[in-house]
Amino acid sequence: MAFDRLIQRIIELKNPTVVGLDPKLEYVPDYICEKYFKEEGTTLKAAANAIQEYNFALIDAIYDIVPAIKPQAAYYEMYGYEGVRVLYNTIQYAKEKGMFVMTDGKRNDIGATMEAYATAHLGRVAVNGIEFEPFGADALTVNGYLGTDGIKPLLNLCEKYDKGIFVLVKTSNPSSGELQDKKIGDDAVYAVMGDMCEEWGSSQIGKYGYSSVGAVVGATYPEQLIELRKRLPHTMFLVPGYGAQGGGAQGVAGAFDENGLGAIVNSSRAVMCAYKKEENCPETDFAQAARREVIRMREDIVSHINL
Amino acid sequence: MAFDRLIQRIIELKNPTVVGLDPKLEYVPDYICEKYFKEEGTTLKAAANAIQEYNFALIDAIYDIVPAIKPQAAYYEMYGYEGVRVLYNTIQYAKEKGMFVMTDGKRNDIGATMEAYATAHLGRVAVNGIEFEPFGADALTVNGYLGTDGIKPLLNLCEKYDKGIFVLVKTSNPSSGELQDKKIGDDAVYAVMGDMCEEWGSSQIGKYGYSSVGAVVGATYPEQLIELRKRLPHTMFLVPGYGAQGGGAQGVAGAFDENGLGAIVNSSRAVMCAYKKEENCPETDFAQAARREVIRMREDIVSHINL
Question: How far apart are CA A22 and CA A96, in angstroms?
């Protein structure tokens, strides 16, 4: 089970956090950008290559502290297919370093098309009898609005290739309640979606009690974290919104079970741009600043849970 | 307004249909695949280039009949970043031929990240002071589960760059009702989502009465098409599920207003693989078979509406 691998690594490193690699070019130190603009001109390719060097340096600086990275597909697509090439390279590099990779793509579609997304991000595609991993992540975030038809192709691939998914349940943004908090009978839409996650994962439960179907629940909604932790005992939570969006360590503690497991907390900008916040930090020290921030984050969160 | 451009073209060609370019390698005639495998070996790049030749030939054969194409991102991602390069090239080629391009990506995320998706697919990204169009489609399909935060960045870009979006409302798949048909008070979830589309589009209504915020409503649910057509007078419908999924022309007629406008019906596989269904059609005739199928489809649909 993919999440057994993730949880194993969380226990080894005593660190239930994941770093979101959401690289805007503005985050990349100037000296890196300038090098590529000089070599390759002002192009999307140069921008993408600058991002790649930045990502690789961040991974080098954190892989022995943090169990996982979560590259957000949007930021790579923003630099066109050259950016998407760097998404692929980043996934491969992090896996070589022993990290668990969750691609944040929030993909969703019906049957055959969802199968194509599942193949793209978690599976293998056959070309002339040879199989290739198009992106090769360990897990993918998905949107369950379309129902079981959109999830089933993923479940098959999770079983076959030892992968996992995280379904959007209660997202961290201020307007998430517009649909997600509305009541269907006595239950909120997010609770109905959460129940569907428990159901979808019920035949793939790993040795720590968590299935290969996880849920995204925002750090910015601590009450719902507690409610959903009780309601969804076999569903691993991916918790965005810590730090930059205002979710604190005390609030996210409710996402964890009594053993300090069952959740992984994401931080993106606070890690990637740590060098911009530290006083007198030269931009050449960006990776070490990121390392200091992931250590700070680990201590902050672990101090509130029973891991 | 982007949908004014689309509707203008629909009227000119008297054809409210769109061809989904969802290219699996299995759809591409063998003689094309073999050429690329011979030249470039068995690689994702060769597969992607074979798909590109196939796509370009299909576009050449249909652009004077059909107003729009809808490339489905999943099928390009399935061939890795080389596939995504072909998505870009396909969009550019179709636009050069005067077609309206809607990328079917069903993207969704919160604020800053949704901005990155919007920039990627509909906008322009700045690199060292120069602006690039990463993908440059005219419209994008999106998932509204996250609420207004996930839609607002798109509305800004739609206004700035003359683009449109289609939000998933009632999808064509059998299990779409698991969440979408559930009742929130007296209304189904899909109706609540539809109302949100009307609201999101209310400040960007074009000369034909339709806003830049459209809705995806499946051909497989003809009653909901009629219901939603009445309920959402300013919302253009993208209607998948005609043909292969079982939706008929009579059923989709309910998606249109009294002038035969307000909807565009998609067909993917039936067009792309027309040559496999026609009797005694050599595979070298695949593009002309697609042309015959889009003409058949146009006649079928136009005969049921008042365009």
Answer: 20
The C-alpha of A125 sits at a distance from chain B's nearest C-alpha, in angstroms, of 7
Contact A129, B42 (CB under 8 A): yes
Q: Do A110 and B77 touch (CB under 8 A)?
A: no
Task: Return the SS3 of B75.
Answer: helix
- The partner residue sitting opposite B111, judged by closest CB among A37, A173, A196, is A173
Q: Tokens for A270, please give them.
A: 């606070």
Condensed to tens digits (0 to 9), the pLDDT of residues B33-55 reads 999 999 999 999 999 999 999 99
Q: Is A70 within a domain?
A: yes
Helix axes B148-161, B189-201, angle to 10 degrees: 40
Structural domain contains residue A107? yes
Q: What's the total number of domains in chain A?
A: 1
Nearest chain B Cα distance for residue A216, angstroms: 12
| Structural domain of A15 | 2-302
Q: For residue B249, what pLDDT is reported?
A: 86
Angstroms from B306 CA to nearest CA on chain A: 31
B183 is catalytic: no
pTM (two decimals)? 0.97
With respect to residue A307, please indicate whether it lies within any of the assigned structural domains: no
Sort out which chain A residues have CB atoms less than 8 A from B189's CB and list them. Answer: 179, 182, 184, 189
Q: Looking at this predicted complex, what is its ipTM?
A: 0.97
Type and span of the H or E element at B3: helix B2-13
Of A22, A110, A148, the CB nearest to B113: A22
pLDDT at position B248: 81
Q: Is B307 inside a domain boundary? A: no
Which CATH number goes with the domain that contains B45? 3.20.20.70
